[in-house]
Write a structure and sequence with these properties.
This protein has 129 residues and is an alpha+beta fold. It has helices at 3-26, 64-68, 73-88, 125-128; strands spanning 30-38, 41-49, 52-60, 97-105, 112-114. The longest helix is centred in the N-terminal third of the chain and has 24 residues, at 3-26.
């Protein structure tokens, strides 16, 4: 990928994450982290509402289906490890229930959120964790 295309993709990703964060805040979520880095990788958004601590992957795609299919089992396992590491560093959040969500941003559509999109017990993921 050329440098120009990579920069454009980076801008689109940041814009999608900002839109997703705003959408979550309007729904009563508190954003605790954006592009949170861990040894296992980066988490797009970390948000809390009540007793739920959500680790959210944001995808911007041309269609909703493309976004929903954009996360491979290997990436799901990486996100689960990253979320576990992030929560482990925050003793004040240890009591919260972790959840791994996906938000898809598509043109001219409201954001679509799949709560619990990545289950640590899903077939095939246990081998990758």
């Amino acid at each position: 990928m050329s440098r120009k295309r990579r920069r454009a993709a980076e801008r689109r990703g940041r814009r999608a994450e900002a839109l997703a964060a705003l959408w979550l805040q309007l729904g009563g979520w508190r954003i605790l982290g954006r592009r949170a880095r861990t040894a296992a990788g980066e988490l797009d958004l970390v948000a809390r509402r009540g007793a739920v601590l959500a680790f959210i992957e944001v995808k911007e795609r041309a269609s909703l289906n493309a976004g929903l299919e954009a996360v491979s089992p290997r990436q799901r396992a990486r996100l689960i490890r990253a979320g576990s590491l992030w929560q482990g560093r925050r003793a004040d959040l240890a009591h919260l229930q972790p959840r791994y969500d996906l938000i898809v941003i598509a043109p001219w559509r409201w954001p679509v959120r799949r709560a619990g999109a990545f289950d640590a017990d899903a077939p095939g993921l246990r081998d990758l964790l």
